Amino acid sequence: MSLTKSTPQPRTENQTENRTPPGPDRHPDRQTPPRDRSRWLALAILCAGMLMVILDGSIVTVALPAIQSDLGFSQPDLAWVVNAYLIAFGGLLLLAGRFGDLIGRKRMFLAGITLFTAASLLCGVAGSPELLIAGRFVQGVGGAMASAVSLGMIVTLFPEPRERAKAIGAFSFVGAAGASIGLVLGGVLTQSASWHWIFFINLPIGAAAGVLAARTLVPDRGLGLRSGADATGAALVTAGLMLGVYTIVQAGENGWASARTLGLGALAVALLAGFVLRQAKAAAPLLPLRVFRSRQVSGANAIQVLMIAALFGFQVLVVLYMQHVLGYGAAKSGLAMLPSAVVIGIVSLGFSARLTGRFGERTMVVSGLALLLAGLLLLSRVPVHGSYLVDLLPVMLSLAGFGLAIPALTGLGMSGATEGDAGVASGLFNTTQQIGGALGLALLNTLATSRTAHLLSTGRSAPAALTGGYHLAFTVGAGLIAVALVLAATTLPARHRRA
Fold this sequence. Notes:
By secondary structure, the protein is mainly alpha-helical. The protein has two domains: 36-229 and 284-491, Up-down Bundle (Growth Hormone, Chain: A), CATH 1.20.1250; 230-283, no CATH class. 75% of the residues lie in helices and 0% in strands. The chain has 21 helices and no strands. The longest helix is centred in the C-terminal third of the chain and has 36 residues, at 422-457. It starts with 35 loop residues before the first helix and ends in an 8-residue tail after the last helix.
């Protein structure tokens, strides 16, 4: 299957340029990859779409105080500006990935980009809390549709291991550094213009990505809805994931041990268990369970949940530390995150593919996690009157470990994908990322808040109490990274064998 247009050439009825002769182990409609220029242009388009989605996940963070003041959000309702997006995005990734396999990944990508861009306009002009939350939910739906199939398209575009490693490195950089860039851009736009522009910025990016994708990506026919339209499985997994994400993001408000949290969590687990049973018996499963037979696929997804949980919570809490304790403004705190984006880019784009080819995926994941662990341990000791150069910059530079680990994890997470289920494997990998992010933010923020409240009750000053709360959260984040490090060392193969 080809995803990009190639230059038309004369052909006979039985001969097509770049056609791979059918064989017993080949898809009859698959073509060899098109020319390098077309493939890398396609990768750039996919990265642009992913950048827009990732930016919107973090760009809102630094604008929340301005949004609350302008639209009159109550403090509990303000969290739904983030939660509405997370619930739709995390809940629909797996379903969107499978439907991309069935109806065509290009069609799903274009529909997602279009919906996301339209929802961004709705958010930008929103004049009430209800309209903004609705727009954010629709953004999450469009983001899930576009991002769920992106990795599957890259796997098809770059079948050769070394080139695939480079492509995944570029895509991983966009995903990782895009979050930091979103903080920078969100702070600058909110302070220099208004919070509305954090959504309007998506309009030119979405329009350009949509037009270029429509012209560049060749339609893939997909397997057809009759090949795997498991309506029951789709309903179970979508309801289970949405309810699970909702339970996690509300746990901080309801309490982790409250009857509401435990009841909703049990229902989400029951729905997901029902989905697994359905997949084991269905003739055309939505998520083939054979994917999990691979140690590297299962291990990569489990490690990613822990790593993203620690780092997403860190990303939000370190900005709060800079603003509430050190007194940074929105723009300054965003710019303070810029070194992390730079080092992630240098490592993931410049070195990760070559290092992975030489030392193997497990070495890269373990090395990256070790760097991240060191950074979070440093952050767990940050003082009330902290210095950026001494206390924060070394932590930002330690995020180079993310640039080492995430491309290798992505390659392992997609290693079990076949031509027919690359979309669902991509959706699964993105789903574990979103679940990790929601879990980490809810857990670490709850711990920081409860610890801060306790310290305030003992007579500590507000800055000291806040810092103490962040210390606990960063220490727990370091513990999550440590568990991921043990899993990487014990479950990942020393060197993944590629077909």
